[in-house]
Design brief:
The structure is a homodimer of 500-residue chains.
Chain A (H helix, E strand, L loop, with lengths): L1 H30 L6 H19 L2 H15 L6 H18 L2 H24 L2 H20 L7 H9 L5 H23 L15 H15 L8 E3 L5 E5 L2 E6 L7 H18 L16 H15 L3 H14 L1 H4 L4 H8 L16 H16 L8 H13 L25 H20 L3 H6 L4 H10 L9 H9 L6 H15 L2
Parallel strand pairs in A: 1-3
Antiparallel strand pairs in A: 2-3
Helix pairs in contact in A: 1-2, 1-3, 2-5, 3-4, 5-6, 6-7, 8-21, 9-10, 9-12, 10-11, 11-17, 15-16, 17-21
C-alpha cells in the first residue's frame, strides 16, 4: 500500500507542478502581461488546465484511490495519509463529472473576459464586458448540469469554494445577520458622524507603499517566499508555499485602499506561507476553503489592522510619514475615521458594519443569474437598484458599480458569500485567541505579532486542506460557523466608537 | 493526409502552449521570482519540460511523421507544410535520443544553478557557482553521449543552437577572422585614443530608461505585444509572437549598458514579433537559429545604434535629456566615444572590434570543458590567463570575469559562437539592405525605421524557423556565412574613426 501511496503522490506532484505554472500564468496576466498576450495566454491556460484535468480524472487515479480507500480507513482518520486519500477522492469525484472540453473552454473564456473586464472597468463601459459575462454565466449553468440535482443549483457552485456548505445554510446565516446589522447601522446613523476627511488627501504613493511594506514585514510576511506588486484588483497568488505573492493598489488621494488592502492580502499570504512543508506537492497544500482563507485576511485587516492597539503602535510612524496630512490629527480621531460607518459604493473599501450587505446583494444576483431569472444585460440596472435598496447609495457609473469586482471575469460564481463567512470565522477565532493569549492586546500595542502568527500557524495554517471548513472551525473554536461572535464584536467596537 | 497534418498541428499546438508556459516561468525566474521559489520552480519546469519531451518523442508523433513524409515530399519544398514536416522531423530525431530523465534533471539543475549564479555574481564568489557548473558540464557530456559520434563532440552541442553548423566550420571562420581583427586592433592601438570619459558620469536611471524606451518605440517595438523589465543579465523572452518581452539593465554611472543593451534586446524582440501569424502554435514559430537571431540584435545595436546617422537624429534628444553631462560634448566626439576600441572585461559592453575575441575565448573554454580537458575548478584561472593573452586585461574579480555571463547557469553550452556568427550575418544582410534601400542612411538620419523593419520582416522575420540558418543567409544574401562583409565594415568604420 505504501507503494500505491507513492504512486498517488507522484501523480499529485505533477498536478501540483502544473497548478503552480497555472498560478504564475494567472499572476502575470493580472500584473505584467501585455494586452496582446491574452489570446496565447488563454491557449496556454487551456492546455495546462486540460492536462491537470486529465490527471485528476484518469483511470489510473480512480484505480489507485479505490485501492487506497480500505488502507486509509484503517489509519488514524486525522493522519496526513488518511486525509490525503479523502481530499483527493473528493477532488476526483468532482473532476470526473466535468468534461475536459468545459475545462478548456472555461480557461479560454475567462482569459479573454479578464482582459475585457480591465478595459470595461477602465472605460466604465459594461457593454465591453457583457458578452464575456454571458458566456461565463452559461458556463456556470452547464457546470451545474454535470452534477446530480442538489437542493438548489447554486449549491454546486458554492461547494467549489466552500466544501460542504449549502445555499440554505448561507441564507439562514445571512437571515440571522441582516436584521442585526441593519439595526446596528440605523443606530449608528442616528448618532453624529465621525470625521474621516483627513484620509482623503494627497498621500505620496511611494511613501504609502513603503508604509504598507513596513506593516506586513512586522506581521511576519516572508519576503524570501513572496513579493508585492500592483494590480487593478488586489489578490494573493500562491504558486507554492515558498512563493506566495500579494498585490495591492495605491490611491494617491485616499489612504485606506493601500493600508487595508495590503494587510488583507498579507493575511491570505501568511496562511499560504504557513502550510506544513510535509504537505508540499500534495493536494493538502493550500487553504481549507475560501471562507477560512478570508477569516485570515479579514483578521489581519480588521481585527488587527483597524484596532486601537494596532494604531497605538503604528500611528506615530504614519504621522512621521505624512506629517502635513496627519500631524495634527490625534490618534483617537484617526481610529474613529478609519472605522467610519457609512454605506458606500465599493465592497473592498466598505466598513465592517456595512460590508456584509455588499455580499448579500452579490449572492442574490448570482443566484438569480444561475437560476436564469436575471439576464446579464439587466445587471447594471438591478445592481444599482439593489444598492439603493440595501445601502441607500447609487453608483454614478458601472466602474464603481457592477464592474468593481474581478471575480466574475475569472469565472468565479459562488465565491462572494465566503467573504461574509470569513468575517464570522475571524471573530470566532479571535475570541479563542483572546483566551489563549491573554496579553494579546499589549503585544499588538508593542508591534509584536509573533504569538498571534504562531497561534494561527499551529491551529489553522499548518493543516493546509486537511480539514473541511466547518470541521476546522469546530475543532478550533468548539462550534460550527456562528454569527454571534461577529455580532458581539461589531456591537462592542461600534458601540464604543459611536457611543451607542 | 490533411487530417494527419491537423493531428500533427494539434500536438504541436499543445507543445507550443507548454513551451509558452516554460518561457513565462523562465522570464519570471530572472525578473520577479522571490528566492524561496527556486525549488518549486525547478519542479514546475522539470514537469513541463518532461511533458513537452513526452509529446516530442511520442510514438504517435513518430507515426504521424512517417506517414506525412511522403506527402510532404510531393509538396513545394518551400511550402509551410513541407517545411513544417521537415523541422518537426529534425526536432523529433533529436528529442528521441535524449532520455526524459535527462530533460527533467537538466531543468532542475539549471533552475538551482541560475539562483546560485545570481548569488555568486553578486558576491563575486565562484565557489558558490562551481558545483552547479560541474553538474551542467557533466549534463552536457551526457547529452553528447546520446548521439552517434560526430566529427567533434562539441558539434552536438553547437547543433542545438545552430542547426547544421560544425565546430570545424566555426573554427575556420574564426581562424580567418582572428588575424584580421587583431591586426585592426593593433593599428588602432597605435593611434591616439578617443575620449569617452563623458560616458562615465552619473546619469539618472529613470531618464536613461525613458530614453531607451523612446528609441525602441521608434524602431517599431510593439508594446501591445511586449514589455520591458530589469534583469541582472538582459535577455529577450518570447512566450508567443504576441508576447515578446525584453529586459535591460541600467548602470547609473555609465550610459552604454542601457542604451546598447536595450537596442540589442529590441532587435531580438522585433524578430520574435515579426513571425507570420499563420505559423502560430506550430514548430515554425521562432527564429531560424541563434546566429540569425543575433544578426538582428547586433544589427539594431551596432549597425544602426552605433552609427553616425542614428545619432544625427537622436543625439539632440539625448543632450536635452542630459544637458549637464552631454551639453558641451559635440556629436562627432560622442560618436567616437561610443565606438571607442579598447580591450575590456565585459563581453556585452565590448566594442565591435574586440567583441569577437571574447567569443573565441569562451568557445575554447567550452570545447575544453566538454572534452574533459579543463576542470571547472580551474576555470577562473584559465579565464583570467586567456583574458590577459587575448585582450591584455585581467579581471580584478570573478564577477567581472568568469561569472559575468548567465549562459552556463542556464545550461547553454554551445551558444557563444552564435554571437560572433551573428555579427557576420548582420554585416552580410546590411550590404544587401544598402542596395535595396538606397536612401537608408537618410531615413535613419530622419529617425525613420519603417523601411528597414519592413525589409527585415519580409526577408527574415516572417519565415520563423522555416529555413535553416545557412539556407536563409544564402537565400537572402546569395552566399553562406562569410566574414568578409563584417571585416569590410569594421575596416571602413574604424578606419574613419581612428584615421587609419
Amino acid at each position: 500500500m505504501e507503494q500505491k501511496l507513492e504512486q498517488l503522490k507522484t501523480i499529485l506532484a505533477e498536478i501540483t507542478d502544473l497548478g503552480g505554472a497555472v498560478a504564475l500564468l494567472g499572476w502575470d496576466q493580472q500584473t505584467y502581461m501585455p494586452p496582446g498576450g491574452a489570446e496565447a495566454r488563454g491557449n496556454q491556460l487551456g492546455t495546462l488546465q486540460r492536462l491537470i484535468h486529465e490527471r485528476q480524472t484518469s483511470a489510473a487515479m480512480g484505480k489507485l484511490l479505490e485501492e487506497l480507500k480500505p488502507h486509509a480507513a484503517a489509519l488514524d482518520p486525522d493522519s496526513d495519509d488518511a486525509r490525503l486519500v479523502k481530499v483527493v477522492s473528493r477532488d476526483y469525484d468532482i473532476a470526473t463529472r466535468v468534461p475536459a472540453e468545459w475545462v478548456v473552454e472555461f480557461a479560454q473564456v475567462t482569459t479573454m473576459a479578464q482582459q475585457a473586464w480591465i478595459e470595461a472597468r477602465t472605460k466604465s463601459e459594461f457593454s465591453i464586458f457583457r458578452p464575456h459575462l454571458e458566456k461565463i454565466v452559461e458556463l456556470g449553468q452547464r457546470y451545474v448540469s454535470f452534477f446530480p440535482p442538489a437542493d438548489h443549483p447554486y449549491d454546486i457552485l458554492l461547494d467549489i469554494f466552500e466544501p460542504g456548505m449549502k445555499t440554505a445554510d448561507v441564507k439562514a446565516i445571512f437571515d440571522a445577520l441582516r436584521p442585526r446589522q441593519v439595526e446596528l447601522i440605523k443606530a449608528i446613523a442616528a448618532k453624529p458622524q465621525v470625521d474621516d476627511s483627513f484620509l482623503h488627501q494627497a498621500f505620496d504613493e511611494k511613501k504609502q507603499w513603503d508604509f504598507g511594506v513596513e506593516v506586513i514585514t512586522k506581521f511576519g510576511y516572508d519576503w524570501k517566499c513572496g513579493r508585492q506588486d500592483k494590480a487593478p484588483h488586489p489578490f494573493t497568488n500562491g504558486g507554492s508555499r515558498s512563493d506566495v505573492r500579494i498585490t495591492t493598489r495605491v490611491n494617491p488621494n485616499f489612504l485606506n485602499s493601500m493600508i487595508f488592502g495590503t494587510m488583507h492580502e498579507c493575511g491570505h499570504a501568511l496562511y499560504g506561507q504557513g502550510t506544513a512543508s510535509k504537505l508540499d506537492r500534495t493536494s493538502l497544500d493550500g487553504g481549507a476553503s475560501l471562507a477560512v482563507h478570508e477569516s485570515q485576511s479579514r483578521m489581519w485587516e480588521n481585527l488587527v489592522g483597524r484596532s486601537l492597539p494596532f494604531w497605538d503602535h503604528f500611528y506615530p510612524r504614519l504621522q512621521e510619514t505624512f506629517p502635513s496630512q496627519l500631524g495634527s490629527v490625534p490618534l483617537e480621531k484617526f481610529y474613529k475615521g478609519i472605522n467610519k460607518v457609512q454605506p458606500s459604493l465599493i465592497r473592498v473599501e466598505a466598513d465592517e458594519a456595512t460590508y456584509n450587505l455588499h455580499i448579500m446583494l452579490r449572492l442574490e444576483i448570482e443566484i438569480a443569474m444561475v437560476e436564469g431569472k436575471l439576464a446579464v444585460k439587466d445587471l447594471p440596472e438591478v445592481w444599482n437598484s439593489k444598492m439603493e435598496e440595501y445601502l441607500g447609495v447609487v453608483p454614478p457609473d458601472d466602474a464603481r458599480g457592477v464592474l468593481q469586482d474581478i471575480h466574475w471575469s475569472g469565472g468565479m460564481m459562488g465565491y462572494f458569500s465566503t467573504y461574509a463567512l470569513g468575517n464570522l470565522i475571524s471573530a470566532q477565532l479571535w475570541e479563542v485567541i483572546g483566551r489563549d493569549i491573554p496579553d494579546l492586546t499589549d503585544q499588538i500595542r508593542a508591534g509584536k505579532f509573533e504569538a498571534l502568527l504562531g497561534w494561527l500557524r499551529e491551529k489553522v495554517h499548518r493543516h493546509g486542506r486537511k480539514f473541511e471548513p466547518q470541521e476546522l472551525v469546530q475543532k478550533v473554536t468548539g462550534s460550527k460557523i456562528d454569527p454571534a461572535p461577529y455580532l458581539r464584536y461589531l456591537k462592542e467596537k461600534f458601540g464604543q466608537i459611536y457611543g451607542l
